[in-house]
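Continued from yesterday's entry.
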Amino acid sequence: MCRICSGEKEMMVDYMPFLNELRHKVNNTYHGKIIYITVSGSDLYGFRSKDSDTDFRGCFQIMTQKLLGLNNPKETIEYETKNDGIVENEAVLHE
Protein backbone atom coordinates (compact mmCIF):
# COMPACT_ATOMS: atom_id res chain seq x y z
CA MET A 1 0.00 0.00 0.00
CA CYS A 2 1.34 3.43 -0.95
CA ARG A 3 1.08 6.47 1.26
CA ILE A 4 0.79 9.62 -0.83
CA CYS A 5 0.70 13.23 0.32
CA SER A 6 -2.47 14.95 -0.89
CA GLY A 7 -0.52 17.48 -2.98
CA GLU A 8 1.37 14.72 -4.79
CA LYS A 9 -1.55 12.35 -5.35
CA GLU A 10 -2.15 13.52 -8.92
CA MET A 11 1.56 13.10 -9.74
CA MET A 12 1.66 9.51 -8.46
CA VAL A 13 -1.44 8.52 -10.43
CA ASP A 14 0.54 9.25 -13.62
CA TYR A 15 3.20 6.73 -12.56
CA MET A 16 0.86 3.88 -11.64
CA PRO A 17 0.99 2.20 -15.10
CA PHE A 18 4.82 2.23 -14.94
CA LEU A 19 4.87 0.94 -11.37
CA ASN A 20 2.39 -1.82 -12.26
CA GLU A 21 4.57 -2.87 -15.23
CA LEU A 22 7.58 -2.94 -12.91
CA ARG A 23 5.69 -5.02 -10.33
CA HIS A 24 4.66 -7.55 -12.99
CA LYS A 25 8.25 -7.76 -14.28
CA VAL A 26 9.64 -8.40 -10.79
CA ASN A 27 6.90 -10.96 -10.01
CA ASN A 28 6.98 -12.86 -13.31
CA THR A 29 10.56 -12.54 -14.58
CA TYR A 30 12.49 -12.56 -11.30
CA HIS A 31 10.00 -14.48 -9.11
CA GLY A 32 10.15 -11.80 -6.44
CA LYS A 33 8.20 -8.95 -4.97
CA ILE A 34 8.89 -5.26 -4.46
CA ILE A 35 9.47 -4.43 -0.81
CA TYR A 36 10.01 -0.68 -1.08
CA ILE A 37 10.09 1.89 -3.87
CA THR A 38 10.46 5.66 -3.78
CA VAL A 39 10.92 8.60 -6.11
CA SER A 40 14.52 9.78 -6.38
CA GLY A 41 16.60 12.16 -8.47
CA SER A 42 15.43 15.62 -9.47
CA ASP A 43 11.83 14.99 -8.34
CA LEU A 44 13.00 14.15 -4.84
CA TYR A 45 14.98 17.36 -4.51
CA GLY A 46 12.46 19.60 -6.27
CA PHE A 47 14.68 20.35 -9.28
CA ARG A 48 12.51 18.80 -11.99
CA SER A 49 12.85 20.41 -15.42
CA LYS A 50 10.89 19.86 -18.61
CA ASP A 51 13.61 17.43 -19.80
CA SER A 52 13.71 15.39 -16.57
CA ASP A 53 12.79 11.75 -16.39
CA THR A 54 11.32 10.23 -13.27
CA ASP A 55 13.67 8.06 -11.23
CA PHE A 56 12.62 5.38 -8.77
CA ARG A 57 14.86 3.45 -6.38
CA GLY A 58 13.94 0.57 -4.15
CA CYS A 59 14.49 -3.00 -3.09
CA PHE A 60 12.94 -6.33 -3.91
CA GLN A 61 12.91 -9.82 -2.43
CA ILE A 62 13.48 -13.03 -4.40
CA MET A 63 11.68 -16.26 -3.49
CA THR A 64 13.83 -18.40 -1.20
CA GLN A 65 13.67 -21.34 -3.64
CA LYS A 66 15.43 -19.21 -6.28
CA LEU A 67 18.24 -18.37 -3.85
CA LEU A 68 18.91 -22.01 -2.93
CA GLY A 69 20.11 -23.25 -6.29
CA LEU A 70 23.11 -23.37 -8.56
CA ASN A 71 22.04 -20.31 -10.55
CA ASN A 72 22.67 -16.94 -8.96
CA PRO A 73 19.69 -14.61 -9.42
CA LYS A 74 20.19 -10.98 -10.37
CA GLU A 75 20.85 -8.69 -7.44
CA THR A 76 19.88 -5.54 -9.33
CA ILE A 77 16.93 -4.93 -11.64
CA GLU A 78 16.98 -1.94 -13.98
CA TYR A 79 13.82 -1.05 -15.88
CA GLU A 80 12.93 1.98 -17.96
CA THR A 81 10.26 3.19 -20.36
CA LYS A 82 10.94 5.41 -23.35
CA ASN A 83 8.81 7.70 -25.48
CA ASP A 84 10.29 8.58 -28.89
CA GLY A 85 13.68 7.31 -27.70
CA ILE A 86 13.70 9.52 -24.60
CA VAL A 87 13.64 7.89 -21.16
CA GLU A 88 10.46 8.83 -19.29
CA ASN A 89 10.67 6.60 -16.22
CA GLU A 90 13.55 4.63 -14.78
CA ALA A 91 13.67 2.26 -11.83
CA VAL A 92 16.59 0.52 -10.13
CA LEU A 93 15.83 -2.10 -7.51
CA HIS A 94 18.34 -4.00 -5.36
CA GLU A 95 17.80 -7.40 -3.75
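--- second protein ---
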Amino acid sequence: MEKSKYICVDFDGTIVTHDFPEIGKDVPYAIETLKALQDNGHKIILFTMRADEYLDEAVDYLKKRGNELYGINTNPTQKSWTNSPKAYGHIYIDDDCLCINRVDYTCFT
Protein backbone atom coordinates (compact mmCIF):
# COMPACT_ATOMS: atom_id res chain seq x y z
CA MET A 1 0.00 0.00 0.00
CA GLU A 2 1.22 3.49 -0.80
CA LYS A 3 1.82 5.99 1.97
CA SER A 4 -1.25 7.28 3.78
CA LYS A 5 -2.52 10.66 2.56
CA TYR A 6 -4.38 13.46 4.30
CA ILE A 7 -7.52 14.11 2.27
CA CYS A 8 -9.50 17.31 2.96
CA VAL A 9 -13.10 17.04 1.79
CA ASP A 10 -15.81 19.66 1.56
CA PHE A 11 -19.34 18.72 2.64
CA ASP A 12 -22.10 20.67 0.85
CA GLY A 13 -22.03 19.99 -2.88
CA THR A 14 -19.25 17.41 -2.51
CA ILE A 15 -20.53 14.73 -0.12
CA VAL A 16 -24.17 15.81 -0.22
CA THR A 17 -26.07 18.07 -2.61
CA HIS A 18 -26.36 21.78 -1.81
CA ASP A 19 -29.36 22.25 0.46
CA PHE A 20 -27.85 24.29 3.30
CA PRO A 21 -28.85 24.72 6.08
CA GLU A 22 -30.44 21.30 5.61
CA ILE A 23 -28.32 18.31 4.69
CA GLY A 24 -28.81 17.45 1.04
CA LYS A 25 -29.02 14.07 -0.65
CA ASP A 26 -25.94 11.87 -0.96
CA VAL A 27 -23.74 12.68 -3.96
CA PRO A 28 -23.38 9.36 -5.82
CA TYR A 29 -20.35 7.33 -4.67
CA ALA A 30 -19.16 9.98 -2.19
CA ILE A 31 -19.82 8.14 1.08
CA GLU A 32 -18.61 4.81 -0.30
CA THR A 33 -15.45 6.36 -1.71
CA LEU A 34 -14.58 8.14 1.53
CA LYS A 35 -15.08 4.87 3.42
CA ALA A 36 -12.86 2.99 0.91
CA LEU A 37 -10.15 5.65 1.20
CA GLN A 38 -10.32 5.43 4.96
CA ASP A 39 -10.23 1.62 4.86
CA ASN A 40 -7.05 1.92 2.78
CA GLY A 41 -5.32 3.96 5.48
CA HIS A 42 -5.97 7.50 4.28
CA LYS A 43 -6.98 10.15 6.79
CA ILE A 44 -10.17 12.10 6.04
CA ILE A 45 -10.41 15.72 7.18
CA LEU A 46 -13.78 17.45 6.86
CA PHE A 47 -13.00 20.88 5.41
CA THR A 48 -16.22 22.89 5.33
CA MET A 49 -17.71 26.33 5.92
CA ARG A 50 -20.35 24.80 8.19
CA ALA A 51 -20.13 25.91 11.82
CA ASP A 52 -21.83 25.40 15.16
CA GLU A 53 -24.87 23.09 15.06
CA TYR A 54 -24.65 22.82 11.26
CA LEU A 55 -21.12 21.46 11.54
CA ASP A 56 -22.23 19.04 14.27
CA GLU A 57 -25.00 17.78 11.96
CA ALA A 58 -22.51 17.16 9.14
CA VAL A 59 -20.11 15.29 11.46
CA ASP A 60 -22.97 13.16 12.82
CA TYR A 61 -24.18 12.47 9.29
CA LEU A 62 -20.78 11.09 8.30
CA LYS A 63 -20.32 9.07 11.49
CA LYS A 64 -23.73 7.41 11.05
CA ARG A 65 -22.56 6.28 7.61
CA GLY A 66 -19.33 4.77 8.89
CA ASN A 67 -16.97 7.63 8.06
CA GLU A 68 -14.69 8.44 10.98
CA LEU A 69 -12.97 11.79 10.62
CA TYR A 70 -9.30 12.32 11.33
CA GLY A 71 -9.88 16.06 11.66
CA ILE A 72 -12.56 18.70 11.38
CA ASN A 73 -11.41 21.86 9.60
CA THR A 74 -7.89 21.16 10.84
CA ASN A 75 -5.19 18.55 10.56
CA PRO A 76 -4.26 17.60 14.13
CA THR A 77 -0.61 16.92 13.16
CA GLN A 78 0.10 20.41 11.86
CA LYS A 79 -0.04 22.13 15.23
CA SER A 80 3.56 21.10 15.88
CA TRP A 81 4.96 22.85 12.79
CA THR A 82 2.59 25.69 11.79
CA ASN A 83 -0.03 28.03 13.18
CA SER A 84 -1.77 28.41 9.82
CA PRO A 85 -5.57 28.15 10.00
CA LYS A 86 -5.70 26.22 6.70
CA ALA A 87 -5.96 22.46 7.15
CA TYR A 88 -2.91 20.72 5.69
CA GLY A 89 -3.74 17.98 3.21
CA HIS A 90 -2.22 16.13 0.28
CA ILE A 91 -5.53 16.16 -1.62
CA TYR A 92 -8.46 18.59 -1.45
CA ILE A 93 -11.84 17.50 -2.78
CA ASP A 94 -14.35 20.32 -3.28
CA ASP A 95 -17.15 20.93 -5.76
CA ASP A 96 -16.12 24.58 -6.11
CA CYS A 97 -12.54 24.08 -7.22
CA LEU A 98 -11.05 25.44 -10.41
CA CYS A 99 -11.65 23.40 -13.59
CA ILE A 100 -13.98 20.88 -11.97
CA ASN A 101 -17.73 21.14 -12.46
CA ARG A 102 -18.52 18.27 -10.13
CA VAL A 103 -16.62 15.62 -8.23
CA ASP A 104 -16.48 12.29 -10.06
CA TYR A 105 -15.86 9.79 -7.30
CA THR A 106 -15.54 6.92 -9.78
CA CYS A 107 -11.98 8.08 -10.50
CA PHE A 108 -10.97 6.85 -7.01
CA THR A 109 -12.29 3.33 -7.45
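The chain has two helices and four strands. The mean pLDDT is 89. Will compare against the first tomorrow.
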